[in-house]
Amino acid sequence: MLEKDLEAKLTKRIKGLGGWSAKFVSPGMSGVPDRILLLPGGQMLFVEMKKPGQKLRPLQEKRKRDLEQMGFLVRVVDSNYKIESLCLAIERGDLFD
């Protein structure tokens, strides 16, 4: 499965939950996550999309750590299973606990 296919599925699922899956592009700052999920209730998280089994590059790891140190949630999604797990956690309301 290609990363773009997973990204399309995530975007569709998030829309179905009443949220937005916005493409995150930051000129001049490489390594930022691919998506910002904006969810009902004012919740937000970043998602880095990967092909199944693919790992984060060192700069992506750094950006993930930096965002987490500021208090943001960052998830790495590389499978249909991870999309469904993330969406179920959002539906249950326990992702941000």
How does the SSE layout of this entry go?
Elements: H1 3-16, E1 20-23, E2 35-39, E3 43-49, H2 58-69, E4 74-77, H3 80-92
Parallel strand pairs: 3-4
Antiparallel strand pairs: 1-2, 2-3
Helix pairs in contact: 1-3
Number of strands: 4
Oligomer status: single chain
Helix content estimate: 40-55%
- The portion of residues forming beta strands comes to 15-25%
End-to-end C-alpha gap: 31 Å
Low confidence ranges: none
Q: What would you call the shape?
A: globular
Description:
A four-stranded mixed β-sheet has the order 1-2-3-4. It has helices spanning 3-16, 58-69, 80-92, and strands at residues 20-23, 35-39, 43-49, 74-77. It contains three helices and four strands. The mean pLDDT is 95. Helix 1 (3-16) packs parallel to helix 3. The chain is globular, with a radius of gyration of 13 Å. The protein has 97 residues and is an alpha+beta fold.
Summarize the entry for a quick read:
Helices cover 40% and strands 21% of the residues. It is of the alpha+beta class and 97 residues long.
Defining traits:
21% strand; 97 residues; single chain; 3 helices; alpha+beta; four-stranded mixed sheet
